[in-house]
Write a structure and sequence with these properties.
By secondary structure, the protein is an all-alpha fold. Helices cover 69% and strands 0% of the residues. It is built from 12 helices and no strands. The N and C termini lie far apart (57 Å). The model is unreliable at 4-9 and 256-261 (pLDDT under 50).
C-alpha cells in the first residue's frame, strides 16, 4: 500500500523542464511517422509515380487544413502577443506579399507530378481515412484547451529531419522529382525549426501542473496518431491494393510496388 501511494504521489509531481522535454522527444522518437513503412518506401525510391501522386494528393488535404485549424485556434486566443506569433503560421501557408506561401509551393509538387490542379483543389481523390484523420485534428484544436491546441504542433520538433531526408531521398531516387517540386519542403526546414522552438518553449512555460504536462503529452500523441493514420491509409490503399471507391486511382496502378516484387 505504501509503494502504491508513493507511485500515486510521483505521478502528480511536476516534471522538471528537462524531464518534460525529454518525455516529449521520446514520444516523437517512438511515434512520429518517420517510423512508418510507407515513409521509408517513399524516400528510398521504392514507389512508382502513381503512388507518389497518391501521397501528394492526400498530403494536400492536410496542407490546406493547417490554416483552418490555426484560424480556429486563433479565434479563441485572448492574448494578442500569442495571436501575433500564431498568425505567422497562416501567412506561411496562405502566402503574403513577396512570399507565395506553402500551399502554392505544394501545387508545384502536384503540377510537377502531372496532376490536374482543379482535381487537386477539389479533394475528390482523397482517401476517407485521410479526411477523417485531418478533420479530427481540426476539431481537436478547435475544442481542446489553448495549451493542448498549441502544443499539438509539437510534431514540428521532428519535422526538419524528415524534410531533409525527403528532399535528399526523392531527388536521388525519382526522375520525376526536381528542385522545383521539392520547394515546399526546402522552405519548411527553417520554418518548422523556428515554429518548433516556439511551441516547445510555450509548452515548458505554460504547463504548470503535472496534469497539464500530461495533457501536452497526450496532445502530441494525438497528432502523431493523425499523421500515422494517413501513412497507414496510403499503405493499405496503394501498396496492398485496397483503394476505396471514389479515391484517386493511378494510371499505373497495376504496376504498383508490392512486398513480393
Amino acid at each position: 500500500m505504501k509503494n502504491l501511494a508513493k507511485k500515486q504521489v510521483n505521478s502528480k509531481t511536476l516534471m522538471s523542464e528537462n524531464q518534460f522535454e525529454q518525455k516529449l522527444r521520446n514520444i516523437g522518437a517512438e511515434r512520429y511517422h518517420d517510423n512508418c513503412r510507407f515513409h521509408h518506401l517513399l524516400h528510398s525510391g521504392k514507389l512508382n509515380k502513381g503512388q507518389v501522386q497518391a501521397w501528394s494528393i492526400n498530403r494536400y488535404y492536410y496542407q490546406i487544413n493547417i490554416s483552418i485549424k490555426d484560424a480556429a485556434l486563433m479565434s479563441r486566443i485572448k492574448d494578442p502577443s500569442l495571436r501575433r506569433v500564431w498568425i505567422k503560421r497562416i501567412l506561411d501557408h496562405d502566402g503574403r506579399q513577396g512570399d507565395e506561401g506553402g500551399i502554392e509551393r505544394w501545387y508545384k509538387l502536384t503540377d510537377g507530378l502531372g496532376l490536374n490542379r482543379d482535381y487537386i483543389k477539389s479533394t475528390d481523390g482523397v482517401l476517407p481515412a485521410t479526411k477523417f484523420a485531418v478533420d479530427a485534428y481540426v476539431t481537436f484544436v478547435r475544442e481542446k484547451s489553448i495549451l493542448e491546441g498549441v502544443t499539438s504542433s509539437l510534431t514540428e520538433l521532428f519535422a526538419p529531419r524528415i524534410h531533409k531526408e525527403r528532399i535528399v531521398g526523392m531527388l536521388e531516387n525519382y526522375d520525376f522529382i526536381n528542385d522545383i517540386t521539392m520547394a515546399y519542403f526546402k522552405k519548411r526546414v527553417d520554418q518548422a525549426t523556428d515554429d518548433a522552438d516556439f511551441v516547445l518553449a510555450y509548452a515548458i512555460k505554460n504547463a504548470r501542473t503535472r496534469d497539464e504536462q500530461e495533457a501536452v503529452c497526450k496532445a502530441l500523441k494525438f497528432k502523431t496518431d493523425v499523421l500515422w493514420v494517413m501513412q497507414d491509409a496510403l499503405y493499405h490503399s496503394y501498396i496492398n491494393g485496397h483503394v476505396p471507391p471514389g479515391a484517386f486511382m493511378p494510371e499505373d496502378f497495376n504496376d504498383r510496388y508490392t512486398e513480393d516484387q
